[in-house]
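SGNH/GDSL hydrolase family protein
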Amino acid sequence: MRKRSHRVRAALAGVAATVLGLAGCQAGGGSPAAEGTKARAARPPLWDTSPDSIAAVGDSITRGFDACTVLSDCPEASWATGGDAAVRSLAVRLLGVTGAAERSWNYAVTGARMADLPGQMAQAVARRPELVTVMAGGNDACRTTASAMTPVADFRADFEEAMRTLRSALPKTQVYVSSVPNLKRLWSEGRTNVLGKQVWKLGICPSMLADADDLSSAATLRRETVERRVVEYNQVLEEVCAKDRRCRFDGGAVYDFRFGTDQLSHWDWFHPSKDGQARLAEIAYRKVTAGDR
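Structure:
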């Protein structure tokens, strides 16, 4: 009888302990899994869709080349930082007109190649921007000949160096990377204009635009070679950007955009007009303000 009573008391004690344990979990706010879910929900998003300052690096497109006057920069028409009301740049869309004038900076240089990007990035770093825009690579493909184009390995190394320059000083600054435009499509659209083809002869992207009306097999092969290199550059931009948690590639949106004659400068029929710059700003704004991935 004593043994049976001992067993009963032991069983009751076990039940009581279980009940108290469950009550303790409820009183403490739930299971560890629930606590982890709350912690994740409270964590701020990795990507800020409303950065408070912007620096732009890159080449002639970001400088607004030929958007206003022939063979001249027009930074006020830049898709990234310009103040022209017809463009509504990324900076204006994010910061407002006054904010864009005070807290956006354009370090792009007409004619710049990817090898120039680390130096531009060092200038941008000094401003400590919350967002850096990158549009470069067109001039690496636009060389005197197709054989003179920047090798893909060098292009990758230069872009990686530019990202290291940024990250060593500003680990939390966000980066928006534009794809290189489809140069062959620009040739196809621009070659319909007689004046544009005359301007091309001054030396604008000769690897693609030289002898614009030549449709021989050799000329076609040359243009296809340049086009393949642009695709390879865009793959590098995507791959390097993907390794950085605060970098967004445009997914090929600029490369895929079908620039028409209204979006091309009526001075050289190759660089974006103000309308084209506005389209680039729209693409960038859509990518930058998308929710956290």
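DSSP finds twelve helices and five strands in the chain.
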